[in-house]
Fold these 2 entries.
Entry 1:
Amino acid sequence: MKNILVAFFVLATLGAAAQSPAEFKEVKHTFGKIKQNVPASYVFTFKNVSGKALVVESAVAGCGCTTPEYPKAPIAKGKTGTIKVTYNAANPGNFTKDVTVKFVGTQLPTVLTIDGEVLTGGDKPADAKPTETKKVVKVPVKD
């Protein structure tokens, strides 16, 4: 019985240590089809669910085409914060980019993901309607 109690205590302690002090509304955002060379941004929102002020230690993008912006001031207990992620959309094609967010005092980071497809100027989404329609008028011809 003593071994069971010790095992339960160890598992409960590990579970509490692995919990994030921030609760994100979502950790992935899909832009869908976006225009080339028009930066696309999304704001991820999180709530401080810890018992003390929460500080974002870092938010690091996997490449230079993605820029994260995060609060430098502590987020009070129970309050919300945001992390804005901007993708520069320079290269056409599908993309998936990650931003790794680390909070002070936690071991495991949170990974935020954005994805979508960058269309070149001539590309149009499959569901796009033509921008111009031509009306054909038949005129009877007399012989």
Note: Residues 2-18 form the longest helix (17 residues).
Entry 2:
Amino acid sequence: MGAYLVDALINAGKLLGSWVLPWLVVALVMQLLSSFLRIRLAQKIGTLPYVYLTAPGVVVHELSHAFFCVLFGHTITDMQLFAPEEDGTLGYVSHEYNPRNLYHQLGNFFIGTGPIWGGTLLLWLLSFLLLPDPVKSGDQTLWQQFAAYLTMFFTANFWCSWQGWLWIYLAFTITQHITLSGADLEGALTGFCFLPVLILFCTLCFGWCGAWEETVVQTGLMAFFALLPVFLLTVTVLLLSAAILRLFR
């Protein structure tokens, strides 16, 4: 019995580490870069022009919140996809839920962190649709895929196509808002408290069903590494943007 409990705890940690923690690390990197660029751009072009320049990212941010509200059964009471206010609010999604409903409580984590998941998937989709060499799969390693993306920046085909410029603009605006506000973090933390408990419950209940946890862990890691080249490329664009901004003092 003791060994069964230990295995359940280990497997719960693996599931949490493969499906949640890598995305949170990426989100932290995005948050730091986006905050730096937001301050710099606002200084260069003004706060209001910056807000309207990155409006598509605000819409994606709020729609991601709204999607998970619907998915987890929360009632959306009010929503503004883009409504800049003097206090710095750019948009919002107000929602209600039953605090005694475990599913609703768990949903708070995904609603709060929604811009991470929604922004990530949209970046992948845009890369697949717009870039000259779409997201690759098969025998290529992670670094080979990333190198292929970087090489793309040195081709005339990329810079001479409207798709390349559209990708740069949308990727920039979306990543500017793959960030979590104080309210987002508070709601996500509330739901996160229930997430490890739920995962542990699943590993305790289904630990006897064979090595299903390994399959789930591998699936989570495969999904993360499949999207990682797009993340690395987007981070590269943000870093180049930051470097260019530093040249114009």
Note: Residues 2-247 form one domain.
